[in-house]
Design brief:
- It is a single chain.
- The chain is mainly alpha-helical.
- It contains six helices and no strands.
- α1 (3-12) runs antiparallel to α2 and α2 (15-24) packs across α3 (31-37).
Length: 80
């Protein structure tokens, strides 16, 4: 599944729909986590494909969804 597509869908869908969509694509997030992550989605930059995700952004994600899930999804999408 395309990570950019997942991000776009989460931005557009309701919280419950985003949760189901993410789960259907192997990403388990609670509605609360989605609500906390949603404002951060606009900060994501295409340039990160070349420069890597800033550690401060990864840390903020880990504070919301936990360190283990953060590392799992970074590895799953080959971002780390």
């Amino acid at each position: 599944m395309d990570l950019l597509q997942l991000i776009q869908q989460i931005k557009m869908l309701s919280d419950d729909e985003a949760k189901r969509y993410a789960a259907d694509n192997g990403v388990e997030l609670s509605v609360r986590e989605i609500q906390q992550l949603r404002p951060m989605l606009d900060e994501i930059s295409f340039s990160w494909l070349f420069t890597g995700i800033p550690p401060a952004f990864i840390e903020r994600v880990a504070q919301i969804i936990g360190y283990e899930k953060t590392i799992l999804y970074l590895e799953q999408y080959r971002l780390q």
